[in-house]
Design a protein that fits this description.
The chain is mainly alpha-helical. The protein contains two helices and two strands, in the order αββα.
């Protein structure tokens, strides 16, 4: 039971992080607050589309694999 709760919380955290990165790159803000001046274009407009989301997920996985040192054959799951 505790393992299921931990996995659920980890999945929720991953979704929030991916969503926050996509929102910042696509719209220049996080959680509805603008962090980039309205006069500037969004940093990466592709990030608010489905392919952009896959690119963000791929980059996050590559970053995680780099910092994990490639342990476990380069896979992050059990």
């Amino acid at each position: 039971m505790l393992q299921a709760i931990g996995q659920s919380l980890g999945f929720i955290l991953a979704l929030v992080v991916i969503g926050a990165i996509r929102e910042f790159l696509g719209f220049g803000g996080i959680f509805g607050r603008s962090l980039v001046s309205a006069a500037l274009p969004p940093p990466l407009a592709l990030a608010d589309s489905v392919p952009g989301g896959m690119i963000v997920v791929g980059l996050l996985l590559a970053l995680a694999n780099k910092f994990m040192g490639g342990r476990g054959g380069g896979e992050l799951h059990d």
